[in-house]
Amino acid sequence: MLQGCASSTKQSAVASIPANLTEPCPALSTLNGATGADILPWAVGVVGKYNDCARRHNALVNTIQ
Predict the structure, then answer these.
(1) Cα angle at 7 between 2 and 12, to 5 degrees?
(2) Looking at the domain assignment, is residue 21 inside a domain?
(3) pLDDT tens-place string over residues 43-54
(4) How many independent structural domains does the chain possess?
(5) Is the residue at 63 inside a domain?
């Protein structure tokens, strides 16, 4: 009966998380203007930043699970 000596702790995945997955999401730029010429480039930038952040968040979740 050597079961008391067996390791029952799970190794932490924190040490193996890539650094780019722990970076905070970038701040979103402020919309300056109300015309289509102002809104379209702003919206494209916001969507790009969101997609990048969501991709890293999902990768982090998958790494931890």
Answers:
(1) 175
(2) no
(3) 999 999 999 999
(4) 1
(5) yes
